[in-house]
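The pair is set out directly below:
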Amino acid sequence: MTGMAGLWNWSAAGRIEPERVRNALAGALDRPVAEIEGAGPGSLLCDVYHVGGDFPTLIDVFLAPDDVAEATIASAVAVRLGADVLLPDDSLNPTRYVLAEPDGTLRVVHADEEETDDGVERRHVRPCTGADPACAAGPGCGRPVAA
């Protein structure tokens, strides 16, 4: 049995049904993925809910495996969903993310966030070029994405 890394928090562009998200994640990891309430032995736990913004489908993956890179799996899920998936990067810049695109491309971006009663809404995704004002807000800009 592989070790568990903890929690992955992603956002997907478009309003995507929870079962479709769980199926895409199961295909990418080649293991069962279940809702928190209905998880069987060996299943990865995945909660999917919706908010507003440009990335309204929020995906929380619990007990995520530590033997695969999060960005690699997010990229595979983006391909399966045919939708952009936004995930935190490893910098300390709170506006910087990795964007996994439906063609499998991974790139570093910035996004504006707004906390709402339903969850965090993300909007206005733009490339991390070093010229964006968000690049000055924290470290890490100008570095490539770690897959």
